[in-house]
Amino acid sequence: MRQIYVPSLSEEFYASAEQLLGETAVKRTESVAEVQRWAEQNNVRMHRDVRIIIYFLRTTKYDLEKTKNKIQKYYTIRSARTEWFQNRDPFLPEMQELLDIGVFLPLRHKDTQNRQVVIIRTAAHSPKYHTQDNVFKLDKMVLDLLLHLDETISVYGIVAIFDMKNVTLGHALQLNPSLIKRTVESWENYPCRPQVLEFVNAPVHVNFVLNVFR
């Protein structure tokens, strides 16, 4: 039995969804039904949670073909990148260490445009003791939790501030070209709306890495 979406947020939120994304109750219902039919007819292996489907639709402003393409890419990445999407126990010692260090910090208060702000401390971890894959795994775990807890993020979006303070050659070497490519592809196909990527305290010698993300 297909799930249906039950609106539970403020009128202001849905007015913003219409203004920013062209979302209406009718378009939302019809688009979700179309994605559900497509997934069933093509045996697409995906999470059938109706809210997740809406998140994907919002990232493309309800372009159905782009949404379907994004869903396929996202779940292909999840299947292939087991180092990020399996063994996601936050109580694992390596995850606890990264949580204590604070490599991915969502701010409690939204910005003036109601966007979720996250501080990504790219050099907070030690390359000697922490793998970049574990850092990315934790980032995605926290992001998934944010999306689960706060639907407004799917409309207003995310501002990501990358704090490069104290970055070393060891940190830069962890980001090999293959890993950078996988990271960018994952970010582009995630069911969220990144609005701003801002890099602060960046040393000159790592600008070649940042150019990939800009």
From TrEMBL:
Entries under Gene3D superfamilies matching the protein: CRAL-TRIO lipid binding domain, N-terminal domain of phosphatidylinositol transfer protein sec14p
Protein name: Alpha-tocopherol transfer protein-like
All copies of domain CRAL-TRIO, residue ranges: 105-213
UniProt source species: Culex pipiens (House mosquito)
Any one GO cellular component localisation term in the record: membrane
GO MF terms held by the record: phosphatidylinositol bisphosphate binding
InterPro entries for this protein: CRAL-TRIO_dom, CRAL-TRIO_dom_sf, CRAL/TRIO_N_dom_sf
CDD domains: SEC14
